[in-house]
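In the current project phase, the collection of sequences with tokenised folds has grown. A representative record is quoted in full directly below:
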Amino acid sequence: MSQQLFARGCEALFGTQYQSEAARALGISRSSVLRYADGRRAVPAQVIERLAALLVERESELAKLIPKVVP
């Protein structure tokens, strides 16, 4: 996973100031989030898997909500 894709996924889930929230949700330190997002470290497989699971969960939540909100 590229640093840009990691950062985009985190930002989509937690907003532009995602570092602390992403760290909590991914079970890693804030400094690790920063290192992955700026490319100083490769994103480990287990972090990619957790981020993917969170994105799928959010997608499912949105899929249920959108028909109720959008006329």
